[in-house]
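Bench notes, afternoon.
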Amino acid sequence: MGTKNQYERILFGLKVKNLRVERGMSFSELSKTSKMSVSYLNEIEKGKKFPKPEKLRSLAEALSVEVPDLVSLEPNAALMPVAELLKSDFLSELPLNLFGIELQKVVEMIANAPKRVGAFISTLVELSKNYALQEENFYFGAMRAYQEMHFNYFKELELKADELMKQHKLKRGKVGSGDLEAVLSREYGILVDDEELSAHPELNSLLSLYLPEKKILLVRAGLDERLKTLTLGREVAYQFLQLRDRSYFTPLRNPRSFDPVLNHFKVTYFSGALVMHREDVAKGVEDFCNRETWDEKAFLEIMDSFNITPELYFHRLTQIMPHSFKLNQLFFIRVRTEPLTYKYAIDKVLHLNQSHHAVSNKIAEHYCRRWNSVQILSELQELRKKGKTRTTARAQMIRYHGTEDDYLVISVAIPAKSIKEKDISVTFGILMTESVKRTVKFAADPKIAFKEVGKTCERCPITDCKERATPPSVLERKTAWQATEDKMREMLGA
């Protein structure tokens, strides 16, 4: 019986506590009647210990129950909600260790109020069903929280990337797909094949697929050099960091646990650090911030100098700026739209240091059209009608309606290569503090447009908005109900 698993020990401990409390016994009283120390009983109730047979009999007698009833995994009514939780994979899938949370603390909370915790968990489950919340959303949400907690900078991965570059004599700022293919072949015996994947139409959504038994990395044919470098960099990272709990394909989809999500993030971060050294990124940021005016061409030139995608460059900014410049009140968002549809959706969000106003909108509402992130995509759609597309960058100063918070935001629109793909914009925003004003000199450029913005058209009270896509229906319903409540209070004399 001493080999019970963690969740059996937890349930047993909860049953012991429940019985002790029902009988009005203190730890001291149970200690005397069971002839066990208070500390040992405390360990049992916390799920850390499971008594041996002789002690189990003594404990059962002290609690006036039969041994089979005490060790049974069938819970009483009070513990039923918690038992269901423990039987599920909910707790095992929570990456508690990443956030410095001990599982035992969660167990203690459950033990203190099992009915309430059970009801809370049941509510979460019901909400997830009603709103189609998938497991992968939970894992990716936990990953974002982990990034935010560390200000999205991971020194150990930066140093590991340096170590690999030194080991293989890779030139800083000059790492390409050819260099990484050579590392995979020479160091790990992995062959890169950029033809086989295209022979299977079912796999046309993948960038890559690693076949571990054959030691072959299949890569999409004709992949942009920048994406190919990043893709090979991920596989190099998996091998170099010796990460075994992993996804064998990119992009990552339908993860079954948190570890593959965490490891996918690590290899993507590592790959970015290989291609864009932190010191080079910091130097580019410093040079641009010392400019007195916003210059789209200069910004795009700095970004292009790293020979990487705009999205990865913006991700790298969220990693380097908090670390190198102590500018950590920022956010990143990605907006997608299908060409010529004018329908926009946010599908990636990262907030550092606080929850900023630019939040993800998963409901069926219209994201504010005043944001650069939408405007430059709209302009891109107009260019597409004329048979022209190009990557564009725009700076904007915004204030979220009803607040005094001003943000400097920079957005880049990236055109889809074909009508079957999606245009995207990536946006980097930073709260305008006194520190930012001193560091980012071009933020004072009067040519940078200022806009008051909202979240969605349905909830926005701005009345003179020419960009509005739909009436403020949600706001109108709330206002009408508020008038109803006010009148009821008046009539009730409240």
